[in-house]
Amino acid sequence: MKKEEIADPLLDANLLQLFELIYDTRSVTRAAERLGLAQPTVSIWLGKLRKHVGDPLFVRAPSGMLPTPEADALIGTVRQTLELLRGLAQRQTRFDAATSQRRFRICMTDASHVTLLPQLLIHVRSVAPGVRLGAERIDDRTGQRLESGEADLALGLIPGLDAGFYQQSLYNQDWVCLANARHPRLGESLTQEDYQREGHITIVSGTGHQLLDASLDRLHLEHRVVLELPGFLGLSAIVATTDLLATLPRHIGETLAARGDLRVFACPVPIPGFTVKQYWHSRYHRDPGNQWLRGVCTELFMRQSDDGYSIVRGPEQH
Fold first, then answer.
1. 257: helix, coil or strand?
2. Is the Cβ–Cβ distance between 74 and 53 less than 8 Å?
3. Which helix (H) or strand (E) holds 156?
4. Regarding the domain with residue range 175-266, which homologous superfamily does it belong to in the CATH classification?
């Protein structure tokens, strides 16, 4: 028999482990003890090995079960195979955050760069100092990147994913308006008349922008846009130095207001809320590192009692 034939699928890991143990201990009895099996069972397994290899493999002698030349030739290959199998088993069942050097890539909006990423980074640096994080945009290729493994997780609202993705709700979002804390015309509350009269800054990217525009169109409300921005960078500074309003999800609105000279108003326009979720592909559902990252996000960001997840069966409607 050639050495490479030991890789035949009929030889499972149990038989390979038995071969190694008998070779090391020179005893069927001791091999049975280490495997936690009855000696007759081990004898049957040894018979299978001998039949498959076409060689006795071990012969009885006063000093124990001595390996044949064929067994001597095979032991190296068997040990390498078992080492690979043990490594695979360990990789599939363990993720040691404290020692990992893994890089995780997370798709998120620029609003999440402000609201979620700082918390996530602080936590990861404290428990997994060797782990690197990479933030990527949510766009029309996000699903492909999650499926291929180019990205590990997505945080946000992605209503158009195809079947095969898991999703878990983290928190609900409603809408607020930001204004200069010294706005010359606003009182204690913001009315629809105020909203229609004042100039606005609008963020022209993302699903939130589509929800806002659809609501204004449905209600036939004026929305006098003075400035369009591609994202939230610079928004708080502009609002704090002008009389313009910005309509945005509550989490990013309250976060920006806490850092600048801004006021938060309840939005007078009935815009549908939405749920921020984390998404991952079913290919990586059982990946230990991916499971760890999802658990961290659940721990940090979930604000509701239902911590279950579901798999996307088709394009999702929000």
1. helix
2. yes
3. strand 153-156
4. Periplasmic binding protein-like II (3.40.190.10)
Q: Do β-strands 225-229 and 103-108 pair in parallel, antiparallel, or remain unpaired?
A: unpaired
DSSP states along 175-220? EEEEEETT-SS--SS--HHHHHHS-EEEE-SHHHHHHHHHHHHHHT
Q: How confident is the model at residue 192 (pLDDT cuts 50, 70, 90)?
A: very high
**What is the reported pTM?**
0.68
Residue 166: its H or E element: strand 165-173
Select from 2.40.30.100, 1.10.10.10, 3.90.150.10, 1.10.238.10 the CATH code of 3-93: 1.10.10.10
Task: Name, in order, each residue with C-beta under 8 angstroms of 313's C-beta and a sequence gap of 6 or more.
Answer: 163
Q: Spelled out in words, what is the top-level CATH class assigned to the domain 103-171+276-311?
A: alpha beta
Per-residue CA distances from 47 to 19, 34, 44, 65 (Å): 11, 18, 5, 14
Residue 26 to residue 199: CA distance in whole angstroms: 87
H or E, element range at 258: helix 250-259
Least confident piece of the model among 19-28, 157-166, 186-195, 287-296:
157-166
Domains 103-171+276-311 and 175-266 share a fold: yes
Give residue 32's pLDDT.
87
Instruction: Tell me if residue 274 falls in helix, strand or coil.
Output: strand
Query: Which tokens in the block code for residue 18?
Result: 């038995």
- Residues 212-258: pLDDT tens digits? 889 999 998 888 999 999 999 899 999 999 999 999 999 999 999 99
Domain-wise residue ranges, the chain: 3-93, 103-171+276-311, 175-266
